[in-house]
Design goal:
Elements: E1 20-23, H1 31-38, E2 44-48, H2 52-56, E3 73-77, H3 87-100, E4 109-111, H4 123-133, E5 141-144, H5 155-161, E6 164-168, H6 169-174, H7 184-187, E7 190-195, H8 213-225, E8 231-234, H9 239-254
Parallel strand pairs: 1-2, 1-8, 2-3, 3-4, 4-5, 5-6, 6-7, 7-8
Helix pairs in contact: 3-4
C-alpha cells in the first residue's frame, strides 16, 4: 500500500506525460539547499542516503521540516553499504533512515538488493520480515538492478511482498542486462527509471548526450516499456549535465513511435 501522504501530481510540468525526478545533489551544497533549488525545476527529489554512517548522522538541521512545503515529492535512495550479512541490522538502519525523512513523507525508497553470490541473496526475505516487524510496509522499497543482482530472480519475491522496481539504464548498458526489457513481471512493477550514461568505468553517471546510437535506442525502448506512471529520474549530479540531458528525454517521449 502506498503512503497516503505521498502527493499525486496529475502531470509533469517538465516532461511530456511523465514526472521528472532529480537527485538531492546537483551542485555542491547541503541536501536542503539542493532541494530548494530543485523546487520549480523537478516534480520529485531523490534524497541521497548513500552511505550508512553519514546518513545516520543526519539531524533535523540537515532535513528541515519546511522542505515539506516545497512543491516537490520525495523518495529516498538507501545506503549502498548495508550489512547484508546481518539482515536484521540492515532493516534497522533502513527504518531509522525512513524515520529521519518522515517529515517529507517519502513515498518510496530505492534499495540495492543483496548480491546473489555466496548465497547472500537469501538475506532479502529476512530483511523484509524484519522491516515488517518494525511496523513498516515492505512495499515502500523499489529494488534496483545492480552489477551483482539483475533482479530477474526477484520477480516472485517482489510480488509476495508488494515490492516494486527501479530500472537503471546505466547499469543495464554497463552490465549487459538488456534482457530486463523482456521481463514483463518486472516491467509492470517498475515505478522509477534512473537515466544516465555509464561511461568507460561503467558507473560514471554521465549525461545522456554521450550515449551512442545503440544506447539511445535502448533508452527509448526502456521508457516505452515502462508503465506511464513510472517517474523518470535523471541520475546526474551536476546541474549542467541535467540541462544537457533533458532535451533528449523530451525528444524520446514526444517520439514514442520512433524505432
Amino acid at each position: 500500500m502506498k503512503n497516503p501522504s505521498f502527493p499525486s501530481l496529475a502531470g509533469g510540468s517538465f516532461l511530456p506525460g511523465r514526472l521528472l525526478a532529480l537527485p538531492s545533489w546537483v551542485f555542491p551544497g547541503s541536501l536542503a539547499d539542493n532541494c530548494r533549488f530543485l523546487a520549480g525545476r523537478a516534480d520529485e527529489a531523490g534524497l541521497l542516503f548513500l552511505e550508512t554512517a553519514s546518513s545516520l548522522a543526519y539531524s533535523a538541521d540537515d532535513i528541515p521540516p519546511d522542505l515539506g512545503r516545497l512543491p516537490l515529492r520525495f523518495h529516498l535512495h538507501l545506503p549502498l553499504d548495508l550489512p547484508w550479512e546481518m539482515p536484521a541490522e540492515a532493516a534497522r538502519i533502513c527504518c531509522l533512515l525512513l524515520e529521519k525523512a518522515a517529515c517529507l513523507h517519502p513515498g518510496r525508497a530505492v534499495l540495492h538488493p543483496p548480491p546473489l553470490q555466496n548465497g547472500i541473496g537469501r538475506a532479502l526475505p529476512l530483511f523484509l520480515e524484519n522491516v515488517a516487524a518494525r511496523g513498516r510496509d515492505p512495499g515502500i522499497f523499489l529494488l534496483e538492478n545492480t552489477r551483482e543482482n539483475d533482479l530477474r530472480s526477484l520477480a516472485s519475491l517482489a510480488s509476495d511482498y508488494g515490492l516494486r522496481f527501479c530500472l537503471d539504464l546505466g547499469h543495464i548498458l554497463a552490465y549487459g542486462q538488456e534482457r530486463l526489457l523482456e521481463e514483463d513481471a518486472i516491467l509492470i512493477r517498475t515505478e522509477l527509471l534512473h537515466l544516465s550514461a555509464p561511461g568507460p568505468d561503467r558507473d560514471a553517471h554521465l549525461p545522456l548526450t554521450v550515449l551512442d546510437a545503440g544506447g539511445m535506442a535502448l533508452a527509448r525502448r526502456l521508457i516505452r516499456a515502462s508503465p506511464p506512471q513510472a517517474v523518470i529520474m535523471l541520475e546526474l549530479f551536476h546541474w549542467p549535465q541535467v540541462e544537457m540531458s533533458l532535451p533528449l528525454v523530451r525528444q524520446w517521449l514526444e517520439c514514442a513511435a520512433c524505432p
